Amino acid sequence: MSQTPTRADFDHYMVPNYAPQQAVPVRGEGSRLWDQEGREYIDFAGGIAVNGLGHCHPVLVEALTAQANRLWHLSNVYTNEPALALARSLVERTFADKVYLCSSGGEANEAALKLARRWAHDHHGEHKHRIVSFSQSFHGRTFFTVSVGGQPKYAQGFGPVPGGIVHGEYNDLDSVRNLIDDDTCAVMVEPMQGEGGIIPAVPEFLQGLRDLCDAFDALLIFDEVQTGAGRTGSLYAYQQYGVTPDILTSAKSLGGGFPVGAMLTTDRVAKAFAIGTHGSTYGGNPLASAVALAAVEFIDTPEVLEGVKHRHDLFREHLEAINRQHGVFREIRGMGLLIGAEMAPAYEGRARDILPLALEEGLMALIAGPNVLRMAPSLVIPEADIAEGMARLERAVARLVAGQ
Q1: Is 144 flagged in the annotation as binding?
Q2: Domain coordinates of the chain in residue numbers?
Q3: For this UniProt entry, which segments traverse the membrane (predicted)?
């Protein structure tokens, strides 16, 4: 580079579909980041629940560096050792018999939906193609996944959406009973809605979906792109609920920051993806697979997963203390280290206003819709960073309350 890029370069050169903050981070270590000016931040955002082990974790750096000196890419004309090792590790740790690797959560969900329709087509015929999803759900940005997602704003302006998709109300089993029928091929659900506001499923709701799918010979798809890979305190959230899906999708923390996605399923269902029915140019990439394998093996340990649950309690205690002082939150909810603080009526729709104030105080956070402050930090964030980050958040909230 002949000159150092600046935030102004984004507006000049990049397509304007994002509105990034003014700070440009250039270095990260653990749960801390530094920008171009050398200013330090504590990271409660985690790259939107992606950096499961923080920034530049030595285990992931070692895996990436070692693989980078061996083999980068082959295509799916060949297989490779890291991809096979990752698939085996995921199968051994979950309900699944088979794994499909890709590059993102959107790709994983696209594959899951196509697989469900193909399976139903092969077993029941063309009529069985209906998909049930839920209002306020989010499943990715491909045209199919934004159509299945329950937030119409993401599909507006792109023309007619695919047919055969209906939406029930999350945590309302009766709404699903009114939609599911013999033409339904799948029900797709997040065990905890992420973009929809950090709303955990009621256990009876997920079990009810399992029972309805069994009754109508439909497939149950769990979108665990955001909840998976240790985020909720288990390797996957379905394990905490005791409800097993037919298909599960994973991404985000699966690669610890390296782009990777996976779709997990059973032998019964996987057979529908015969040779040539689906593919991904970078799926099973050796670099991504090596990093993901290291992430899974590090995360799926009692020390990390129990630590997630302990850190959840710390986050909740700090948020409740801030709320006792300032009264800005109506409810604090979530599982593990995916936590949402819904704004109180007096601050309705103002979660976004906290983000630039927090950044000025040296804290990176997220929102989940206009009314929920979201936190998805590293699963191994040090307790000292939690305390300091919450002190910075309290100062930002105080400024919001004061009208600054």
Answers
A1: no
A2: 7-56+302-401, 71-299
A3: none
**What's the rounded Cα separation, in Å, for the pair 92 and 61?**
24
Backbone CA torsion sign across 224, 225, 229, 230? negative
- What's domain 71-299's architecture? 3-Layer(aba) Sandwich (3.40)
**Annotated binding-site residue? 107:** no
182 given a catalytic annotation: no
Residue 1 has pLDDT above 60, yes or no: no
Distance from C-alpha of 55 to C-alpha of 82, rounded to nearest angstrom: 22
Q: Is 153 a catalytic residue?
A: no
Write out pLDDT tens, residues 101-140: 999 999 999 999 999 999 999 999 999 999 999 999 999 9
Helix, coil or strand: residue 246: coil
DSSP 224: -
Spatial distance between the Cα atoms of 239 and 224, rounded to a whole number of angstroms: 11
For residue 352, how far is the Cα from the chain centroid? 20
The two structure tokens encoding residue 64: 């990436």
Kindly give, in sequence order, each residue whose CB lies less than 8 Å from that of residue 11, ignoring residues fewer than 6 positions away: none
> In the predicted model, is pLDDT for residue 189 greater than 80?
yes
267: annotated binding-site residue? Answer: no
SS3 272: coil
In the sheet that 261-265 helps form, which strands lie side by side, from edge to edge? 98-102, 261-265, 247-250, 219-223, 184-189, 130-134, 165-168
Per-residue pLDDT at 404 exceeds 60: no
Convert the pLDDT of each residue in 297-349 to its tens digit.
Answer: 999 999 999 999 999 999 999 999 999 999 999 999 999 999 999 999 999 99
Domain 7-56+302-401 in this protein, CATH class: alpha beta
C-alpha to C-alpha distance for 261 and 283, rounded to whole angstroms: 8
Find the helix or strand (DSSP H, E) in which 48 lies.
Answer: helix 46-49
Give CA torsion, residues 182, 222, 121, 174, to 10 deg. 10
Q: Is 223 a catalytic residue?
A: yes
C-alpha angle 15/17/23, rounded to 5°?
A: 90
| Residue from 252, 258, 273, 329 carrying the catalytic annotation | 252
Which pLDDT score is estimated for 292?
Answer: 98
- What gap in Å lies between CA 297 and CA 89, rounded to an integer? 8
Question: How far is Cα 247 from Cα 232, in angstroms, rounded to an integer?
Answer: 19
